[in-house]
Design brief:
This protein is mainly α. The chain is built from 4 helices and no strands. Helix 1 packs across helix 2 and helix 1 packs antiparallel against helix 3. The longest helix is centred in the C-terminal third of the chain and has 56 residues. The relative contact order is 0.06.
Length: about 140
């Protein structure tokens, strides 16, 4: 599981735990929630320090990768052939992942189209009934003489 998810769930779990422990107290529910929020923040600073540090490392690694990719793209735009070739290899890997996502999206589109066809068939069956109902409705008489 991702360190960010672990840390977030840990913070949420601490809040819920403290809030449940405060429920028996005769305080307003909003006061209980505020106290639980403050206590969970303080406790998570100490209890979840390891998960917070791992999440920080993960975010720093992602920032480093983005910075390196940005520099590579700038070099490729400036005419550096090696940077462009390196990007082609990275793009090929990204294209494979995108193709898998496209196949999944196409399957979802086919299912939606089948549902649309079924709904349209239901509308065609209801159309003659609506037309017959309109014919049976008398038109209002003109009272002007």
């Amino acid at each position: 599981m991702s360190p960010a998810v672990k840390y977030t769930l840990g913070r949420l779990g601490l809040f819920v735990l403290i809030f449940v422990l405060l429920l028996p107290l005769p305080l307003n529910i909003l006061i209980k929630a505020m106290v639980a929020l403050l206590l969970s923040a303080v406790l998570s600073f100490f209890l979840l320090a390891d998960w917070r540090n791992k999440m920080g490392e993960q975010l720093a690694d992602a920032a480093t990768r983005r910075t390196a990719e940005k520099q590579r793209l700038r070099a490729a735009l400036a005419g550096d052939e090696d940077a462009a070739a390196e990007g082609d290899r990275a793009a090929a890997e990204g294209d494979r992942a995108a193709a898998e996502g496209d196949r999944a999206a196409a399957a979802g589109d086919r299912a939606a189209a089948a549902g649309d066809r079924a709904a349209a068939a239901g509308d065609r069956d209801a159309a003659p009934t609506q037309a017959a109902a309109r014919r049976k409705t008398p038109e209002p008489a003109d009272d002007k003489k």
